[in-house]
Design goal:
- The protein is mainly alpha-helical.
- The chain is built from 9 helices and no strands.
- The longest helix has 51 residues.
- Helix 5 crosses helix 7.
- The termini are far apart.
- Keywords: Membrane, Transmembrane, Transmembrane helix.
Length: 220
């Protein structure tokens, strides 16, 4: 059993918990999550994870970390990390993808994918970014960068490129979707707050007008 298969199992469990969030009780979701996790770890051709990896390739270490965070959120009801840090981590992943994927597919003569084959300068730059994230209290981003490099040095995944430990296309798609959903929820909350304050302001205006009219009648 490889780490790639374990990460794939965690991702599948996170997806299953998201789909069954409104369909099953907490106990039912936990039981189904255990079934999906064990089923995903079975060897080919019985295991679900082996089939997923054969079609979608491997998932990154970051996908495994965020999958564990999503599982914890679905089990407990709140994120272990503040939403602000998760938002920062998703933005970091999207920005890295906007720079990495176009250049890797030929938009420039520079190939950033080659930096992932043990480049000391690239690893040092990522560690400095992680240190900056720690100083600014973006602990999720720091954890992603540090853990990905530690696992890369240990060589636990099938790939020998650091980029495959940091991110994958499916993770970037999820990060974009999460940011869009977060933006939509923030806009809805702001709209609800504004709509709740407008009636109260109108009520205060009517009360003030009534009091002013009463005072004018009393003086006359």
């Amino acid at each position: 059993m490889s780490i790639d298969l374990v990460i794939c199992a965690l991702v599948l469990v996170a997806i299953q918990l998201r789909i069954s969030a409104t369909l099953l009780s907490l106990r039912g979701r936990v039981v189904l999550a255990c079934v999906v996790f064990v089923w995903s770890l079975l060897p080919y051709p019985w295991g679900l994870g082996a089939w997923v990896l054969s079609y979608l390739a491997g998932f990154s270490i970051t996908s495994g970390l965020l999958a564990m965070l999503a599982i914890q959120h679905r089990m407990v009801g709140h994120y272990w990390l503040p939403v602000r840090e998760l938002r920062t981590a998703c933005r970091m992943l999207v920005l890295m993808a906007l720079w990495f994927y176009p250049m890797s597919m030929g938009s420039s003569y520079e190939d950033p994918y080659s930096l992932g084959f043990g480049s000391f300068g690239f690893s040092t730059a990522l560690l400095l970014i992680g240190l900056l994230a720690w100083v600014t209290r973006a602990y999720a981003s720091c954890l992603i960068l540090v853990v990905a490099q530690c696992v890369f040095r240990a060589g636990w995944l099938a790939s020998d490129n650091l980029w495959d430990y940091l991110m994958d296309p499916w993770l970037v798609c999820w990060a974009v979707g999460w940011l869009l959903r977060d933006r939509l929820l923030s806009a809805r909350a702001l709209l609800a707050q504004q709509s709740s304050t407008q009636p109260s302001a109108a009520g205060w205006g009517e009360t003030g007008a009534t009091e002013a009219a009463g005072q004018s009648k009393a003086t006359t």
